[in-house]
TrEMBL record:
It catalyses: DNA(n) + a 2'-deoxyribonucleoside 5'-triphosphate = DNA(n+1) + diphosphate. Keywords: DNA damage, DNA repair, DNA replication, DNA-binding, DNA-directed DNA polymerase, Exonuclease, Hydrolase, Nuclease, Nucleotidyltransferase, Transferase. This is DNA polymerase I. The keyword Aminoacyl-tRNA synthetase does not apply. Single-chain monomer with multiple functions. PROSITE patterns: DNA_POLYMERASE_A. InterPro entries: 3'-5'_exonuclease_dom, 5-3_exonucl_a-hlix_arch_N, 5-3_exonuclease, 5-3_exonuclease_C_sf, DNA-dir_DNA_pol_A_CS, DNA-dir_DNA_pol_A_palm_dom, DNA/RNA_pol_sf, DNA_polI_H3TH. The lineage of its organism: Bacteria, Pseudomonadati, Pseudomonadota, Alphaproteobacteria, Candidatus Puniceispirillales. Its EC number is 2.7.7.7.
Amino acid sequence: MMDDDTGTVNDIGIQKARLLLIDGSGYIFRAFHALPMMTRADGTPVNAVYGFTSMLMKLVDDMMPDHVAVVFDTSRQTFRSDIYPDYKANRLAPPEDLIPQFALVREATTALSLPMMEASGFEADDLIATYAALAETANMETIIVSSDKDLMQLVRGNVTMLDPMKQRRIGAAEVEEKFGVTPDKVVDVQALAGDSSDNVPGVPGIGVKTAAELINIYGDLESLLACADEIKQPKRRENLIAFAEQARISRQLVLLREDAPTPLEMGAMKTPPRNMDVLKAFLVEQDFKRLLVRIGASADAADKVSNPAVRSMGGTLSTNANQDQTAKDSAMATIHDAQSLRNIEADYTLITDREALVSFLGKARKQGFLAVDTETTGLNASAVDLVGISMAIAPGQACYIPLRHGATNDSAVGSGVAVQGGLNFSDDDTPAHYPQLDFETAMAEIKPLFEDPAVLKIGHNLKYDAHVLMRPRNGGINLAPVDDTMCLSYVLDGGRVERHSMDYLAGHWLDYTTIKFSDVCGKGAKQIPFSELAPEAALDYAAEDADITLRLWMILKPRLAGEKVASVYERLERPLIPVLAQMENYGITVDRSILARMSNDFATRMEALAQDILALAGEDFNIASPKQLGEILFDKMGLQGGKKAKTGAYSTSADVLEDLAASGVEIASKVLDWRHLAKLKSTYADALVECILPATGRVHTSFSMVGASTGRLSSSDPNVQNIPIRTSEGRQIRTAFIAAEGCKLISVDYSQIELRLVAHVAGEQSMIEAFKDGIDIHARTASEVFGIPLDQMDSETRRRAKAINFGIIYGISAFGLARQLSIPQGEARDYIASYFENFPGIRAYMERIKTEAREDGFVETLFGRRIHITGMAGGSAAHRGFAERQAINAPIQGSAADIIKRAMIRIPPALQAADIRADMLLQVHDELIFEAPAADADNAVKHITRIMEAAAAPVVDLKVPLVAEAGIADSWADAH
């Protein structure tokens, strides 16, 4: 039930009539983003409709208003657009799957027998303001159902708000808490602060807090502007004077009109009884069986829902009706759980004595789980020092344990900024001027719990925390077992939410805005290191991270089984967390001297190319400037193919230059070579040196587990997966990655794994036989497509077949293949047609997977990972084509990623069991890099290749063998 079910009472004890004004547009978007994708039998998306209908039904039943109306927006063009054409111009178009649901939510409103209204040229907020004023005149109580802050200016007397997601009433006190002013002055604060979401400009440099201070001093906007020259702060004074008119325009934009049209008389808004026949018919049409049951519909009515065709949460449900309903119930339960976790008072504790710490840890041990987060001196886990630890044992119940606050170091910054070095602490690691636990004393209590196999440790991007804690200086803790909310979100909603960061998920699931690092440590030059904060100042920021993580875990973890992705999380993602943390900790040795020689060599060759380019141009110009290069190529030299961008400058992209080079334009060819060397020099030869950690002489890349929708890992600082290998210069970079003294590097790479997986999923027998017999697959393809016997195959024909083989995986077009092979499009089209004629199973697979993606909204890897695909319906042909190519490739690339992850999880314990020392250092797509003592290298290869080749089993019985090829050498280049 709502927090207040009764209306207000007037002075003589008679209950006032209650008017409920519902922000329908806000409800739609909330429902859409809260519920996973659902489609009815004909493929129409209905997740927003389902959530809208369910929440609206419950709201009216609970509140029992005398009068009610659901208010909708009509379009973005309103009178405000005439005042300020850029108003809301930065708003993105609604999600493609939401657009067809706008009309359906209006149908839902009608089916619920609720009055609704809208007015052209006005926003829903203006209608709400107008009817609230009318109700006030009629001495009625008005409740505005919305979480839109713009409506808070209407709160007064008999007018309050209800946030439907937090189930929280908003009165004058709540408005003042948010804006720092009384509701009647909210408009003036908004006029000064502006609103980036609606593109309201405001006054530069003035935020809500400052605006509130100014309005409380001067009373209102006009009084403030009249006295602007009295403001002491120079920049603030200048901006208030310079942007006074902009502030006045902003006030017009945010002020809600109380004279909007009134489409309905107040009498027409009396809450009517529901027409149950109409409602039942609507729910049956939408396949909403659960809601039919909720309103007490007969079994016959509920059974009319075509369960086998219902699609929920992006995937086809089982034909079993109970399983269908369970999945939907699970989705709605998630929303309700999220609601219950939103409006919780935080109770954060600063722990600075051993007794309090022991007590908190005892509670965690007793219940068997807790959320954990670390505060450190930077982002590079291999270099940072631990500053403090936060933990949460229940929603709102969290603590922060400061450990190294009070030390200062010019190079040390807080946890929002990357640094290479740690802080300089005293021997006991405990600065004296802040009360906090001795580091060793605290770790003696914390370590047993963090390593206790009976207590689950929950974190967000816990790989980072595990890496930090495993370093001896930071406790030498083996954090286990673990759950990770970032990985949970990735497995459940990859492709369905924008990001998987804790801040984003807090907003998405909990409607909660987290404290930002800059809020506690400042910004820019004035930013201080986190370790310099007093522990009391760090408490809320640090403890909140653990608290929000725990709440997210409570929402996300229960969804795994219902959405049938538990095995992906439990067998692929979760066990990989400690493996990656250890790999990052090991790092790999990089030889500075080799990089320095390369950098000098690249510089020398660049200079020679530059001289040639300038000579061909006939004048000096900046080769690195696309604008100047374009003018040389297309204005001075008059070359064909010049196209100007919106900026007015010619495009000199790689595609443009490659076309010119292919036409024999020498200067274009040399510029491409110059750019290639420039990138190698700046991005690798020079930048890699900066990434070498002085303490280890190694680079410690960071692997992202959520960087690609297909399940592939990505890396950064440095990005080892983007080191080019197609040119001899690019391959040179890998010569700088070397084995430690007395050791060898081992490179083990899956041979043509994606082509093997294509053969398996397509059931293409000739390809399967070729892989089983160890026949060159590209030669076999050339033989099939071009009709040339294997013993007469030439290298050029094989090269063309190779391009087709790999191109097909990525859905290559005739245009793309023609460009790649430098042949006419017609010839390329013939090649592709011949390929599909000889390998019909592949075409059948491609058509099947496109259909599945279109109907289900996702595709699956062989191991059950769901990869959500958008854009399969509607939009331009180009967008649909891109989505189709993504659908074709994603299951193949994703299955390959899953297989190597399975291998990575199995290899370390297998090597340990065999008493072989070989450390896994890097993963680069289908390749794993190890470092082993020279004497153990051969034996390590035998075990590693055996595990990699059997990695798909027993989950998938592949029709083709997996082959892992290994090399042993002193450098990565020589081992690969």
